[in-house]
């Protein structure tokens, strides 16, 4: 069971919009519009910032960003994983699912989530991010490291994410895909160009969705 972070395991687009505009303000830049943030959401942050704030000095932005990121995390404003999502992870694990994260975030952006004392520490078998993968979504090769390390076949994995880019990566890798629509940022129609094995309106629905997918495979004799 492979899980995206942003707007999947935890809802982050709105708070990331605020966080990034706070960073821009601290380095003397004009704020971006919400429309621009939404249109580039799902891309690696430092790639997207060139469009979110054209001409921005990425080194200055990065230096200020990591300060503000720490402030938001310490204040409990970012990456809050609600109890019902943790219960869903535990139910998946109890059913024998190996849980892993796969995100376009950088290693620094993931550090607090992967700390030994974080609630995810005992729940995850592995995490794949910009620090240990050579590719980023929507490139399907983003799954290569995971598949090599685990020895799993693509069809033995399910990826749950929130964006068409997530679907494109999973489809290209032969991994089954579940679209989580909880954030409201995207609708079913946004995935029309991609194969989606199941839609869920809230992360905890993933438990039943995975059971249904496995039952359907058994019926087909796969």
Explain this structure to me?
The mean pLDDT is 96. The longest helix has 17 residues, at 58-74. This protein has 222 residues and is of the alpha/beta class. The chain is built from 9 helices and 6 strands, in the order βαααααβαβαβαββα. It has a 6-stranded parallel sheet with strand order 3-2-1-4-5-6, sandwiched between helices. The chain is globular, with a radius of gyration of 17 Å.
List keywords for this structure.
DNA polymerase, domain 1; 9 helices; 9% strand; 2 domains; 222 residues; alpha/beta; HAD family hydrolase; single chain; HAD-like_sf
Q: Give the C-level CATH assignment of the largest domain.
A: Alpha Beta
Q: Helicity range of the residues?
A: 40-55%
Name of the CATH superfamily of the largest domain: HAD superfamily/HAD-like
The fraction of residues in strands falls at 5-15%
CATH fold topology of the largest domain: Rossmann fold
Task: Describe the secondary structure blueprint for this structure.
Elements lengths: L1 E2 L9 H14 L7 H6 L5 H8 L5 H17 L8 H12 L5 E3 L4 H4 L15 E3 L15 H7 L7 E4 L2 H10 L2 E5 L17 E3 L5 H15 L2
Parallel strand pairs: 1-2, 1-4, 2-3, 4-5, 5-6
Helix pairs in contact: 1-4
